[in-house]
């Protein structure tokens, strides 16, 4: 079994959907499960529709629904050619927009907002299926809501997913091509839910693990993970091979191409993940496997919007249990810490979610003097064994001479050195590292 996931831009235009049909029928040596996102822009619109309804602004919600429906109406005109399948596509679009219009009339709830969000992936997969039908490509729609489940903590239940998915696949063992929805799932109350924004990658990885797939291909519109942010530095190179650990660090610290949560299921079942480009299908892309590959720096990534909290206290001197008490405050507010540095009388931590910042600061105040700094960026240098490689460290710090580095996290893992800089220095830092570590301008 092979998993192939296509993101919103890969299905966002009729001609792109046509191309996806070609890509999934090129190599038929193995059965395939194709995971699709919603058409690009759809989930954002559905979020806006939900927000308008939540704030009681039905008129605005109605306007947004109509606008989105018009988009789908013109989409299907170019998607299929025959009258029969156009009529079928039209009735799918009508059905889902009728549903949204019904929701508009009932009183809004959290569960309803999840129903709204699910429409994007339901539409993209059904419309894609209509196109495959027109092309005479034999396939089956696998309803994600029948096998993707999350528990009461919103965590996917891999073992349950495995049992449910295997059963469906066994019952349809004559089929070679399956199409399913990314992102959507059922929660512990049996309601429609989702794996959070960008969650289709997570679906793909979970399905890959559950089906013990030979490979999990993530198709986007860039040729794999790059060594640096192409929006910021002029020259970047795709990375051919990464280990799961390196990929996890990169995904977490800002490489937008892969959702950070999606690494563990594939890693657990040792399913290789390939990042491929729909615009250049022949390009090598990036392969992520268990093996670390070569030693050395592979990439740098940046994560913005970091808040630094400093706790200074002479009571910390020779004290034990001090850090535990501090961490408990963050635990209480379900806020995860990214970086931490300590000295004998102070500790600095960074967070990327300031939702509970005021409460956290208030509860930390009894421990010492608290200061908060905003607008920081974590620059993460990722590669195999880099923390052990002396010349890498000297190159790194040489390159950063002009930068006021605020924190350094080194030695936590063998694959990563992270630095905290004021966000206003992000561009310069990435450029200097591109030159200093990769010899690229
Ligand atoms: N459609 C969802 C989103 O835009 C999931 C995904 O694309 O991965 O967040
Ligand atoms: Mg995506």
TrEMBL record:
Annotated GO CC locations: cytosol
Q: Which GO terms describe its molecular function?
A: aspartate kinase activity; ATP binding
Query: What enzyme class is recorded for this protein?
Result: transferase
Q: Which Gene Ontology biological process is one annotated for this entry?
A: threonine biosynthetic process
User: Which residues does the record give as substrate binding sites?
Assistant: 43, 121
The family database entries (InterPro entries) matched by this protein are listed as: AceGlu_kinase-like_sf, ACT-like_dom_sf, ACT_Aspartokinase, Asp/Glu/Uridylate_kinase, Asp_kin_monofn, Asp_kinase, AsparK_Bifunc_asparK/hSer_DH, Aspartate_kinase_CS
Question: Which SUPFAM superfamilies is this protein grouped with?
Answer: ACT-like, Carbamate kinase-like
Keyword Disulfide bond in annotation: no
Q: Which UniProt keywords apply?
A: Amino-acid biosynthesis, ATP-binding, Kinase, Nucleotide-binding, Transferase
Q: Which family does the UniProt entry place this protein in?
A: Belongs to the aspartokinase family.
Q: What is this protein called?
A: Aspartokinase
| Species | Niastella yeongjuensis
């Amino acid at each position: 079994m092979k998993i192939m996931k296509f993101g919103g831009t890969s299905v966002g235009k009729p001609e792109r959907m046509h191309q996806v049909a070609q890509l999934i029928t090129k190599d038929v040596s193995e059965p395939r499960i194709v995971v699709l996102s919603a058409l690009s822009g759809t989930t954002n619109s559905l979020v806006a529709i939900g927000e308008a309804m939540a704030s009681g602004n039905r008129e605005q919600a109605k306007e947004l629904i109509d606008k989105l429906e018009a988009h789908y109406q013109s989409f299907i005109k170019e998607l299929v050619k025959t009258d029969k399948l156009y009529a079928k596509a039209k009735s799918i679009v009508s059905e889902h927009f009728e549903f949204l219009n019904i929701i508009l009339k009932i009183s809004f709830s959290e569960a309803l907002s999840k129903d709204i969000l699910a429409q994007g992936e339901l539409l993209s997969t059904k419309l894609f299926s209509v196109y495959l039908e027109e092309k005479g490509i034999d396939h089956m729609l696998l309803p994600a809501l029948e096998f993707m489940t999350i528990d009461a903590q919103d965590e996917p239940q891999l073992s349950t997913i495995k049992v449910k998915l295997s059963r469906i696949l066994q019952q349809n063992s004559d089929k070679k091509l399956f199409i399913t929805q990314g992102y959507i799932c059922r929660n512990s109350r049996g309601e429609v839910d989702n794996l959070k924004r960008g969650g289709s990658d997570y679906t793909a990885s979970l399905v890959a693990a559950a089906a013990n797939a030979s490979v999990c291909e993530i198709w986007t519109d860039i040729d794999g993970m790059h060594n640096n942010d192409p929006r910021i530095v002029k020259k970047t190179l795709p990375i051919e091979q990464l280990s799961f650990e390196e990929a996890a660090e990169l995904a977490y610290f800002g490489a937008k191409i892969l959702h950070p949560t999606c690494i563990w299921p594939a890693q657990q079942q040792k399913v290789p993940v390939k990042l491929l480009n729909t615009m250049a299908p022949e390009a090598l892309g990036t392969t992520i496997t268990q093996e670390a590959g070569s030693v050395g720096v592979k990439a740098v990534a940046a994560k913005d919007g970091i808040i630094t909290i400093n706790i200074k206290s002479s009571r910390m001197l020779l004290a034990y249990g001090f850090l535990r008490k501090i961490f408990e405050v963050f635990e209480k507010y379900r806020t995860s810490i990214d970086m931490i540095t300590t000295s004998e009388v102070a500790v600095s931590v960074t967070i990327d979610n300031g939702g509970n910042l005021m409460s956290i600061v208030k509860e930390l105040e009894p421990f010492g003097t608290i200061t908060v700094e905003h607008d920081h960026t974590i620059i993460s240098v990722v590669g195999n064994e880099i923390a052990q490689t002396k010349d890498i460290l000297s190159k790194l710090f040489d390159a950063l001479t002009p930068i006021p580095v605020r924190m350094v996290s080194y030695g936590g893992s063998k694959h990563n050195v992270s630095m905290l800089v004021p966000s206003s220095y992000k561009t310069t830092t990435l450029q200097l590292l591109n030159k200093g570590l990769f010899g690229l301008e």
